[in-house]
Amino acid sequence: MSQIRTAINRIQDEIKSAQERSPYGAKDVLLLAVTKNVDAERMKEAMTAGISAFGENRVQEIEKKYDQIPTEASWHLIGHLQKNKVKYIINKVALIHSLDSTALAEEINKRAQQVNLVMPVLVQVNVADEETKFGVTPDEAIPLIQGIRALPHLKISGLMTIAPLVDEAEKVRPVFRQLRELRDQIQEMNLPGVSMDYLSMGMTNDYQIAVEEGANIVRIGSGIFGARLPN
Ligand SMILES: *Cc1c(COP(=O)(O)O)cnc(C)c1O
């Protein structure tokens, strides 16, 4: 069996165990294969091993590989998105994980309208409040959502976070828990135009804990494809 397939099978098993051992485990968890610096051949190999969705953090890389990948795959934009790049990916991606400003929401809404679609987005929350990361603070999330939820070509579909890098994965549990609690709080507000379908959290080093805390999208790169070369 290929290394990619072996890794995917193992991660799927770990996700399943984490779902089962926790009261917060989601019913379905999407394993999003993060394919930055991964070529189309290896992406197709991942598809034969059951992957159906790819996460990229750069617009340019989606554009470069898009036509080489079978159309049944879906693409997710997981990295910071500049307003002037929205037009390049608006009809290519199924979900944008990194919404973090009103201005970006307005641009996505405008471009989605031009191609006649409604774009699902997740609000990126910087739970740990690290200065180097994008995303809104937990306090800013609800006001942001309130301000943009009426945009007709945008569908607010959940929350995303990137946990800080720590030596022991268990240390990030409070970050994941806080995002889940924020999700619950927003859900209880029953805001028109807002659904909290997705909780995108957990990467190679911490996905089991994220699933225990209720993640239903985990974003895994190196755990599937091996260590990335530094950019
Ligand atoms: C690179 C990346 C991942 C995957 O990281 P790994 O540690 O390789 O699993 C997940 N989410 C985002 C936003 C990323 O940029």
From TrEMBL:
The lineage of its organism: Bacteria, Bacillati, Bacillota, Clostridia, Eubacteriales. This is Pyridoxal phosphate homeostasis protein. InterPro entries: Ala_racemase_N, PLP-binding_barrel, PyrdxlP_homeostasis. It comes from Dehalobacterium formicoaceticum. Residues 10-228 form the Alanine racemase N-terminal domain. Keywords: Pyridoxal phosphate. Pyridoxal 5'-phosphate (PLP)-binding protein, which is involved in PLP homeostasis. It comes from the Bacteria. The modification N6-(pyridoxal phosphate)lysine is found at K36. Pfam families: Ala_racemase_N (PF01168). Belongs to the pyridoxal phosphate-binding protein YggS/PROSC family.
